[in-house]
Specification:
- This protein has six helices and two strands; from the N terminus they run αααααββα.
- With 244 residues, the chain is mostly helical.
- It has a two-stranded antiparallel sheet with strand order 1-2.
- Helix 1 runs antiparallel to helix 2, helix 2 packs antiparallel against helix 3 and helix 3 packs antiparallel against helix 6.
């Protein structure tokens, strides 16, 4: 009989294998998120460096947990428990930071709109991204139509009032400006914030969910360390725990 309760060991390995698979999926997600972030950074979106840190952390720590349980080595379980404790703290810190960023994002768009608009309108690639965004979400300008000056692009033309969320209204183009006769009345700031807000909510669920998981991993690894010490102290097999 091994040093660790068989049911507890199998359960521990099972969940670490699941998280190892999750780590592989997160690598794919991180690659996709990096490509999207390059475009969304134009509009003040958050970076994805923390996603790569978490992804590699989940993959590496899960592999360590599987090895520690299979080998029943106290040293590796201690290392795993230490990573779980550190990971839980990091997740809580990151979750708090993301929550603060989410709450301040809308205010930044409203109070510092000029700072967001000027870099976008000066960069040709950013302008093309904005035009594509306008066609998709049926809006015009980051903050308002005035962002385009006197030359309103065809991507602002109001030809379809149907949209997945919210009502779409049309208005005449500003006086002394060229472009479509009817343009979208709404700016793109609400749509941009809507997409970023979805990303923030997913991130919050992800971070705090992993914080709880790290706490459970920490408690189970401490329990397994205790069983190994008891086995070594008694010089025989560990006593199966009641209720497991």
């Amino acid at each position: 009989m091994g040093k660790i309760n068989g049911c507890l060991k199998c359960l521990f390995i099972f969940f670490n294998v699941l998280f190892l698979i999750v780590g592989c999926l997160l690598i794919f997600v991180a690659v996709k998120a990096t490509a999207v972030s390059i475009q969304m950074s134009t509009f003040g979106g958050p970076g994805v460096g923390w996603i790569w840190v978490i992804t590699l952390g989940v993959f590496g720590i899960s592999a360590l947990g599987i090895f520690a349980a299979c080998s029943e080595k106290e040293l590796f379980l201690k290392i795993f428990a230490g990573f779980m404790g550190i990971g839980m703290i990091i997740m809580l810190i990151f979750g708090t930071v993301v929550a603060v960023l989410r709450n301040s994002l809308k205010q930044n768009y409203e109070s510092k709109s000029k700072e967001f608009v000027e870099p976008i309108m000066k960069d040709e690639e950013s302008r093309q991204v904005l035009e594509t965004f306008q066609i998709t979400f049926k809006c015009c300008g980051v903050v308002s139509t005035k962002d385009w000056g006197t030359q309103i692009p065809t991507s602002c033309e109001c030809t379809d009032t149907s949209r997945a969320f919210g009502a779409v209204t049309c208005k005449p183009r500003p006086v002394l400006s060229s472009g479509p006769a009817l343009i979208y009345a709404e700016s793109c700031s609400d749509s941009i914030f809507y997409l970023l807000d979805i990303g923030f909510k997913i991130s919050l669920g992800f971070l705090f969910g992993f914080a709880v998981t790290a706490l459970l991993g920490l408690l189970i690894s401490i329990l397994m360390i205790h069983q190994i010490r008891r086995h070594d102290g008694m010089g025989g097999p560990s006593i199966a725990m009641k209720g497991y």
